[in-house]
Each structure stands twice: as structure tokens, then as C-alpha cells.
Amino acid sequence: MNPHSTHQLNLLSLYLVKKLVGLINEFMFVLLIPFLLFLLSISIAATGNQQKNQDSSKEYIFISDTQGMLTAEYLWNITNNNKAVRQLLFSDIIEHNPRSVFHMGDLVTEGYHNPSWNTIDIFLDSLSEKEIPFYPVMGNHELIFMPERGEKNFQKRFPQHSRTGYSVRVDSLAVVLLNSNFGNMSDEEITKQNSWYNDELDELDRDSSIQIIAVGTHYSPYTNSTRVAPSENVQQYFVPGYLKSKKAKLFFTGHTHAFEHFILEGKDFLVIGGGGGPQQPLLVGDDARYLDNFNSEDKYRRFHYISLIKETDGYLLNVIMIDSTYSTLEEAYQLNLKN
């Protein structure tokens, strides 16, 4: 066979091989279509069910002070399986699949230090996978040592946050979130927030779709802590509007690493700083500054978070607290908020 004929034969062979491969690929693709459609339907169904379950959830979570300890704090604070308990709280919250999660500040130990965010970032990723929104306020630990850098790390994760207050409306619940880091605010910002806060409460009181308002900030107006003082600024700027509002029923704060419940003029003030930060001793009994309706003589309160569930006739608040063995969670305290 001459070289020209051999070349033509090679070209023909190559052409036939390519056609054969193409036919095989088309045939295999046709066979795979039903399988691919099946996988797609499963994915769509799973996503739809997850969104349906999340939308139908009537539970809202409130937590605070999930930070670890500064090196110096080991000198005067006790440790009590903090890291393990914090992870237990996070896992339980994710398992509950709530409608929203609200955090009253001190998410991390040092806001400016990127590795400090690792634990909360994993929690945030888990919430995001289940399409559960997360709404925080800044605590003092977000702004510690290098406040501008700490706030930048905070803001890039939570662009919906405003340093002069913001609100969230979910179903018939409205949550007004406020900045109580007054030492890091200008006079103009403080005035702006106070004006917005009172206007927002008035608007929410007039909104017929809202049944209950919760106010949240980091510093507590009332606490029996031996480590931090009650915030006179919060008493001055935030408490009067809360007491005046017809629908405002809950005032959530952190900063004190314990659970406390105070009642003023028939309104509930809840300190919920038991998210995993070092436990802080309280003044109890005759030494207490304020009457604590959480009837406990324990100076150290156990780690916890708050579950708020919408019912047909109002809302049910449960304090989900680590048990005395520090191994499992239990419902330790309840409030019924009727319409």
C-alpha cells in the first residue's frame, strides 16, 4: 500500500473512532439522564423541606457571652468545661432549627484577633447551612484592645448590623437591638440611637402585626454581679422607653456571666450571659443589690441559652441550662407571656 493510501486509511480510522466515542458518550448520557434527574429531585426536595421547616419554626433563640477567657482572666476566674459546654449549647441550638438566633454580644474573646473568631465562625456556617439568620450586638470583647479593627471584623460578618441600633421583625415578634458600648460612641451617635430607639418603639406599638417586642443590648441595667456593675447609661437611655412601651415585654442583656431575672414595674429584665464565658460569682441573699426572681442561692449560675416559642395565646420562654453534672441540657426556668 502506498503512503498516500495509508494516510487516508489512518484518517478514516481516526474519524470512525471519534464517531464511535461520540456515540458511546451520547448513549451513556441518555442512560444517565434518569439518574441525574433523580438526584436533582432529591436535592430540590431536601432544600424545600429544610426551608419549609425553617419557615414554619416558631422558636427564637437568645444567647450571650460565648467568648473564651483572656489569659489574665485565668488568675481570678474558674473554668468549668467552658469549651465543651459552649459546643454543647451551639449543637443544641442547631438541632432545634430555630427561626432566628439573637446574640447579646461578646461573641469572641478578642474581636481584633482573627483566630478568636474560629469557633463562632464554625457555628455561623452551621446556621447558614440551615438558612437560620443570626442577629448580634457588639459587646466589649468585640472592641477590646483594638476597637476599630475589632469592629471591622464584626461588621464584615454582620453587614445588617448598625452601631446606632437596628431592629428585626419576624412573624409577630420584633427585636430591637442596641449598642451599649457608650465609651466607643460619639455624643452624636448616642443621641441618634436614643432618638431612633424611642421612635422605633412607638412605631412597633402602633403596628398591629406585632404582638411582642424584645429589647436587647450587651450591658445590663441591673445585675448582682461581683465583677461588673449595673450600667447607669442603660438605665438612663434604654430602660424608660422599654417601660413605657405597651408591647415591650422582654429586656435581654449579657455582660454578667450568669442568668438573672429582675422585674421592674411589671416588666421582665433577663441577664443571659451564660453562653460559655467564664462564670462570675453573684451577690446572693441579703447581699444582693436587686431581688432576683430566679430563686437560686448559687453564686455561680450554670451555662444556658434562651428559647422563646410562639404559642397560640402568646409566647413561652424557656431557659435551657446545663444540668448539675455539666453533661446534658435541661429546661431550668420558664416564663409565660400571654397576649
The largest beta-sheet arranges its strands as: 3-2-1-10-11-12
Task: Please compute the radius of gyration using only Cα atoms.
Answer: 27 Å
CATH class identity of the largest domain: Alpha Beta
Shape: globular
CATH architecture annotation name of the largest domain = 4-Layer Sandwich
Number of strands: 12
Give the integer mean of the pLDDT values: 89
- Indicate the low-confidence ranges by residue numbers: 42-53
Q: What this model shows, in words?
A:
This protein has helices at residues 3-56, 82-96, 118-129, 147-157, 187-206, 232-237, 239-244, and strands at 59-63, 100-103, 134-136, 166-170, 173-177, 212-216, 248-253, 259-264, 267-272, 304-311, 314-322, 329-338. The chain has 339 residues and is α/β, with parallel strands linked by helices. The protein has two domains: 1-56; 59-338, Metallo-dependent phosphatases (Purple Acid Phosphatase, chain A, domain 2), CATH 3.60.21.10. The chain has a six-stranded mixed sheet with strand order 3-2-1-10-11-12. A six-stranded mixed sheet has the order 4-5-6-7-9-8. The longest helix is centred in the N-terminal third of the chain and has 54 residues, at 3-56.
